[in-house]
Amino acid sequence: MSKKYDLFIIGGGINGAGIARDASGRGLSVYLADKGKVGSATSSWSSKLIHGGLRYLENYEFKLVRESLKEREVITNIASEITNPLPFIIPYKKKLRSKLLIKFGLFLYDNLGGKTKIPKSSKVNLMTDYSNILQPKFSTGFKYYDVQVDDKKLVEMNIDDAKNMGAKIVENKKVINAKNESNGWSITLENNEIVKASILINAAGPWINETVNNVININTKKSIRLVRGSHIITRKLYNEEIAFTLQNNDNRIVFVIPHNKEYSLIGTTEVDVEKPDNPKISEEEKFYLIDTINDHFIKQISTSDIISTYSGIRPLIEDFKEASKVTRDYIFDLNIQNMNAPLLNIYGGKLTTYRKLSEKVIEELEPYLPIKKTKNWTHLKKL
Ligand SMILES: Cc1cc2nc3c(=O)[nH]c(=O)nc-3n(C[C@H](O)[C@H](O)[C@H](O)COP(=O)(O)OP(=O)(O)OC[C@H]3O[C@@H](n4cnc5c(N)ncnc54)[C@H](O)[C@@H]3O)c2cc1C
Fold first, then answer.
1. What is the DSSP string of 223-270?
2. Among the listed residues 137, 146, 144, 199, the one whose alpha carbon sits nearest the alpha carbon of residue 335
3. Residues of the chain with pLDDT under 50
4. Is 128 in the same domain as 239?
5. CATH code of residue 254
6. Which domain holds residue 210?
7. Which pLDDT value is given to residue 224?
8. Measuring CA to CA, which residue among 168, 204, 242 is closest to residue 343?
9. How far is Cα 61 from Cα 42, in angstroms, rounded to an integer?
10. 71 touches ligand 1 (CB under 6 Å)
11. What total number of domains does the chain contain?
12. pLDDT at site 321
């Protein structure tokens, strides 16, 4: 008889990879399948930041910011080789957020996450401390710190650990069907291989609805909104190892981040889309990002300065707000009613919170797992 796994995970993005690592380390048997290469979808199209999400404070998402700041500390410790604390400068703009508001936000940001090795925020003089980068209309700025990460490597390191602890990981195999049978899940891969598992975890990122509707074939009450975020890459706009958090007049922010020593990574945008496949930047998004740079920097750029671009799709939980105000938090949808074996759908999330999300998945599934009362461990062991 073929082996029956404790968990089957659809999707080897950061969330699937994190769950596979965590669960394998607790002695659970795990099968993870990805339709492409692990970590090659949304998890490598991010802004590559492990961050608290300063701007989420404006949406009163204190719980999310607190958890993210705590995770920033943990991930910097367990993945020190691929993370790098980086100063971010917010140029002050009179007509937008007041100095008092920014200072208050930064005070919260410095303290919400508890003890940290990351330096605290401060006010800076842009004319003397960081001269000849921004236009003279910006004289005051605020400096705070976040952490840069190699997002794809973070996925791969989680996957490698999971493999070393016995997880079966398969790439380039789409899950085409998952059937809830009397003795568990029967999952069909695109080469018609059938895998049996007790619990199914759907970590398909922006393909979550597609998977729920066409692979698992159940009705769900949850709805997600697909929002494209694009970045452009140019030769570096300045030499200093600092990033900028630019405030746009539409109240959004755009990051300018040092990228692979020679380049600047500029993003992102927010555009609602219908489908999660093959996201690509539009001309309009390019101009939005270029205009933002030209409104702030002495160096002016045009489309001919763009060396490359990439886009990713945020699967945001639909709550009918402006995209920038929709929560970046994750929610679980555990299906047990009318089912012989549990199904956990994962909606939303951030790179930053993947480890905590993975722990909470185990907590949520605890009543259905063959191994009980296992200790959380991923915050202690280096990747
Ligand atoms: C533009 C942008 C910038 C971002 N910046 C940041 C940031 O700086 N910091 C941060 O913390 N977060 C950031 N995020 C959020 C973060 O990138 C995502 O939350 C995270 O990568 C989502 O991971 P995931 O595992 O859910 O999805 P994904 O990485 O998309 O993984 C899902 C996987 O499922 C697979 N899959 C789908 N369907 C099937 C199927 N039927 N069978 C098998 N496999 C399947 C896909 O191939 C894919 O590999 C950003 C997001 C975007 C879009």
1. -EEEEEEEEEEEE-S-SSS-EEEEEPTTS-EEEEEEETTTEEEEE---
2. 199
3. none
4. yes
5. 3.30.9.10
6. 4-42+152-223+328-368
7. 84
8. 204
9. 23
10. no
11. 2
12. 59
What is the C-alpha to C-alpha distance for residues 108 and 66, in angstroms, rounded to an integer?
9
- Counted residue by residue, the chain has a size of 383
Q: Is residue 16 in contact with ligand 1, taking CB distance under 6 Å?
A: yes
Question: Does one domain contain both 144 and 243?
Answer: yes
Q: What is the pTM of this model?
A: 0.95
What integer pLDDT is reported at residue 320 of this predicted model?
54
Residues 122 and 242 in one domain: yes
238, 298: one domain = yes
Instruction: Please give the backbone phi and psi of residue 27, each rounded to the nearest 5 degrees, phi first.
Output: 90, 10
State which ligand 1 atom lies nearest to the alpha carbon of 348. 19
**Hey, which of 42, 55, 64, 245 would you mutate to test ligand 1's pocket, going by the most ligand atoms within 8 Å of its Cβ?**
42
Side-chain-side CA neighbours of residue 87 (13 Å): 16
Backbone angles phi, psi at 272, to 5 degrees: -65, 135
Nearest CA to ligand 1 atom 27: 205
Query: Is 165 in a helix, a strand, or coil?
Result: coil
209 CB less than 6 Å from ligand 1?
Answer: no
CA 346, 352, 113 angle in degrees (round to 5)?
A: 120
Q: Which residues of 220-236 are buried (b: 16+ CB within 10 A; e: fewer)?
A: beeebbbbbbbbbbbeb
